[in-house]
Structures are given as C-alpha cells and as structure tokens.
Design the sequence.
C-alpha cells in the first residue's frame, strides 16, 4: 500500500512540475512569437 501511495505522489509531483515548466516557457515565448503567430492565423 505504501508503495502505491509513494508512486502516486511521485507521479503527481512530476506532472505538476512539467505543467509549471510548460506554463513558464509559454509565458516567455508566446509574446516573442506573437506577431508570427498572428500572421499564421490569418
């Protein structure tokens, strides 16, 4: 039972960390490419 709980916590932390990293990258990079993305969307 402890092993299952530990694995669940480990997976939660890994998912959370990846989500935070993705959010950080998007916050930094989207403004940088906003003009190009706008042109592509036309």
Sequence:
């Amino acid at each position: 039972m402890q092993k299952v709980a530990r694995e669940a916590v480990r997976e939660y932390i890994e998912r959370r960390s990846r989500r935070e990293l993705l959010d950080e990258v998007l916050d930094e990079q989207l403004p940088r490419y906003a003009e190009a993305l706008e042109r592509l969307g036309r």
Remarks:
- The chain has a mean pLDDT of 89.
- Residues 2-40 form one domain.
- The chain has one domain: 2-40.
